[in-house]
Design a protein that fits this description.
471 residues; alpha/beta; FAD/NAD(P)-binding domain; Enolase-like, domain 1; five-stranded mixed β-barrel; globular; FAD; flavin adenine dinucleotide binding; FAD/NAD-binding_dom
């Protein structure tokens, strides 16, 4: 059935409504349509969500291009000579191609070809078992699902309440991805994954980048050793990094941004990127209808992704993705989508578990982590054992540049004899992480892992070196 800008004005009886058609919502809506349900997907932006248009896909195109530039600079002294002239234009062109110039027609056609209907507009809960969609033309459509409401609204960039910031033309990840040209200088508010990835990328293409992080270290939710590795790599690239730097005010004079910090720094740049995390607006979603705290950072869900406390006589309400508070990752939304679909269709299967959630920051070197950090494990009262291996020793000189001082760190439960967490900082850290993700997820005994034959010479061999410190 073809996409419509507006459904008829009278309340529509359908089987299921999915509010938010990012990766998780699209997966749920598509699979419910495949099962024969009458499904309406709702989104006020592009079908597919943040990931294919402003997140994962375009940003990794940018990361890959910057990696090529960095590798070319490493040729002298290791493989000959090279002259490198970075050019952002082919990168911007490739991003536009990959996003269909921010057009979702192909995605909409893909969904509607499965039997679903797509309604572009802002969906919100207006009563138990009722979703009202504000259309792009100002009209409203009321949907009353018989079977399920699925909330997959994703999240928005979080903008800190710094005096003056809201009145400036700052960038978020969306403007950064859409940039056809790069500024000569860039201030980045936030030393998390988004800020560090973009900061390193554009620095390698000639932009002077300064990163401000309020916390005392970068990627503060990861192992403290990660900060040390990234600081060396970023400063080697020319990125200026200020940690423990709290912005006191932001101003814009029509050509340059100025950030005044509480401890006295005064920094200026042509552009300002706000990369201070993500937030979910439950009030805008109308979550108060569900009798939950709509000022909370996330919706409560059970192990089947269902929002508890709903009228058993009405349609069930499920939630997947960022809105559940279990990590703003595409892979999390897809994982939860599978759990929700099986629950809605009554197919049973495994419930959601979160002890082995992988996460990757695509800096150079990459930072891959899964499960608990050492600090988190100790906070939970686990009898912790730590194993660590340096990549420089494992690689024996075949790494040149950032990553040569990377590491693998393992966190084990000494009583249970299993890994509860692991971190890989180094080349292909996200790929090497796969082994640890399986081990933590399956709770494989450390004694069995220690018997693994690790191929030589590989980066993942460092896992075996770290295991020997545990046993």
């Amino acid at each position: 059935m073809a996409v419509t800008d507006r459904l008829p004005q009278q309340p529509q009886q359908v089987d299921a409504v999915v509010v938010g058609m990012g990766p998780g919502g699209e997966e749920v809506a598509g699979r419910l349509a495949d099962a024969g349900l009458d499904v309406v997907g709702v989104d006020e932006r592009l079908l597919g969500g943040e990931c294919p248009y402003w997140g994962c896909i375009p940003s990794k195109i940018m990361v890959r291009a910057a990696g090529l530039v960095a590798e070319a600079h490493r040729i002298p002294g290791t493989a000959g000579t090279a002259m490198v002239h970075p050019d952002w234009r082919p990168v911007a062109r490739r991003v536009r191609e990959a996003t269909d110039d921010w057009n979702d027609k192909a995605a909409v056609d893909r969904f509607t070809s499965r039997g679903g209907r797509f309604l572009r507009g802002r969906g919100r809960l207006t009563a138990p078992g009722e979703v009202t969609v504000g259309g792009m033309d100002g009209g409203e459509t009321v949907l009353r699902p018989r079977r399920a409401v699925v909330l997959a609204v994703g999240s928005e960039p979080s903008v800190p309440p710094v005096p003056g910031l809201a009145c400036t033309p700052y960038w978020t990840n969306r403007e950064m991805v859409e940039a056809a040209e790069l500024p000569e200088s860039l201030l980045v508010l936030g030393g998390g994954a988004v800020g560090l990835e973009f900061g390193q990328v554009v620095q390698r293409f000639g932009t002077a980048v300064t990163v401000l992080e309020v916390a005392p270290r970068l990627l503060g939710h990861e192992e403290p050793e990660v900060d040390e590795v990234l600081m060396r790599a970023l400063t080697s690239d020319g990125v200026e990094v200020y940690t423990g730097a709290e912005p006191a005010s932001v101003s814009y004079d029509g050509g340059r941004f100025t950030v005044e910090c509480a401890r006295g720094e005064r920094l200026t740049a042509e552009r300002l990127l706000v990369a201070a995390g993500r937030r979910v607006d439950l009030t805008r979603l109308g979550a108060g209808v569900l009798e939950v705290d709509d000022t909370a950072p996330a919706l409560p869900v059970d192990a089947r992704m269902r929002v508890p406390g709903q009228d058993p006589g009405g349609p069930g309400v499920w939630a997947v993705g960022d809105v559940t508070g279990h990590g703003a990752f595409t892979h999390m939304a897809m994982y939860q989508a599978d759990v929700a679909v099986r629950a809605i269709l009554g197919r049973g299967g495994p419930q959601a578990e979160y002890h082995a959630v992988p996460r990757v920051t695509f800096t150079d070197p990459e930072i891959g982590a899964v499960g608990l950090t050492e600090a988190e494990a100790r906070q939970r009262g686990i009898a912790v054992r730590i194993g660590r291996a340096d990549l420089a020793a494992t690689a024996r000189g075949f790494i040149h540049g950032p990553g040569g001082d990377g590491f693998v760190k393992l966190v084990a439960d000494a009583d249970a004899g299993v890994l509860v967490g692991g971190t890989v900082a180094g080349p292909y850290g996200g790929e090497v992480l796969g082994v640890l993700s399986v081990a933590v997820r399956a709770r494989l005994p450390v004694a069995e892992l220690a018997q693994t034959i690790w191929a030589y010479p590989t980066f993942h061999r460092a896992i075996g070196d770290a295991l020997r410190e545990l046993t």
